[in-house]
Amino acid sequence: MNTQNSYLASKPHYEILDGLRGVAAVMVVAFHLLEAHSGGNPIDAAKYQFLILAAIAALTLLADSLIMVMAYRKCFTADDQYNPITG
């Protein structure tokens, strides 16, 4: 437990990200409240939400793929030999 606390203490904390998370949370709540009271067809709303879900899933897949490529390049040499990370 102590090693986890010291690890977290060594990481930088960006307060702007906390603010952005708060803004995003308020925007999500506002979007759903306004969507529910817009008087539109619920089927159209469900289709739109599915489209948004699919877009988020596709972007997550893309981001994860980029992370894996960057990690692979950092951990392996050009000859596909493991290159241990020191320090």
Count of alpha/pi helices = 3
Structural class: mainly alpha
The coarse silhouette is flat
- Total E-strand runs: 0
Mean pLDDT: 84
Give the radius of gyration. Answer: 21 Å
Work out the helicity level. Answer: over 70%
Order of helices and strands: HHH
Low-confidence stretches: none
Largest sheet descriptor: none
Q: Report the β-strand fraction as a percent range.
A: under 5%
Topology:
Elements (H helix, E strand, L loop, with lengths): L1 H9 L4 H22 L5 H34 L12
Outline the structure in words:
- This protein has 87 residues and is mostly helical.
- Helix content is 75%, strand content 0%.
- The protein is built from 3 helices and no strands.
- The chain is flat and about 60 Å long.
- The two termini are 21 Å apart.
What are the defining features of this structure?
single chain, 87 residues, mainly alpha, 3 helices, 0% strand
Compact overview of the structure:
The protein is mainly alpha-helical and 87 residues long. The chain has helices spanning 2-10, 15-36, 42-75.
